[in-house]
Every structure is written in C-alpha cells, then in structure tokens.
Amino acid sequence: MDRVTDFESGGCAFEPRRGRFSLHAVHEDIQLIRMLLTRLERVSADSYWAHRASGIRGALLKTLEELEKETSVGQKNINTLISSAFEILTKAAKEKSER
Fold first, then answer.
1. So where are the chain's domains?
2. DSSP string spanning the chain?
3. Which carries the bigger pLDDT value, residue 3 or residue 57?
4. How far, in Å, are 2, 3, 8, 51 from residue 78 at the CA level?
5. Tens of pLDDT, residues 7-62
6. What is the C-alpha to C-alpha distance for residues 70 and 50, in angstroms, rounded to an integer?
7. Residue 93 CB: number of other CB atoms within 10 A?
8. How far apart are CA 33 and CA 35, in angstroms?
C-alpha cells in the first residue's frame, strides 16, 4: 500500500507549515535553559570548571534571547549546548564531592 505519511498528527513537535518546532517544545527548551543557567551560575569560582561554565552560560544566554525573540535557532545547536551544560555540571559536582 502506498500511503502518505501524516506529518500533521499530534505526535510530532515539528510544524511542517511553519518550518519550526511547536511552541510547546520551545517553551520546554526555555525552561530547561533557565534552570541550567541558574545551576551553572553556582559553580564555584575556584573550580577547574568555572571558566567553561561561564562560556556555556554565555552561549545559553544568547540562545535563550533568540528563543524568546522567536528567532530561528537550530535544534542541534540547542541540544549541543544543553548536553555541554549537563556535562560541566556533572564534572563540577564530582570535583566538589572529591574535595
């Protein structure tokens, strides 16, 4: 059977007519980025990871501004920044627990 895939079903967060992700998915990214920003802000200044945390914070702040302005931001870029933030937070916490 030749069937056309239904991309307009509720299961996909991508809106084909607009060419971007739904507002719900964007809202979730915004909430997660805000949470990561507050956590990265708490990384101790004397930690080895403080400088990297600062750099990721800057990139996340810029991405947050773009999302809030509803400017196109690549989902791959967002995912990479979020993964990097979690990695830094994990390593900073491990460093702190080893002291």
1. 22-98
2. ------TTSTT--EETTTTEE-HHHHHHHHHHHHHHHHHHHTS-TTSTTHHHHHHHHHHHHHHHHHHHTT----HHHHHHHHHHHHHHHHHHHHHHHH-
3. 57
4. 36, 33, 24, 20
5. 444 444 444 444 455 677 888 999 999 999 999 999 999 999 999 999 999 999 99
6. 30
7. 14
8. 5
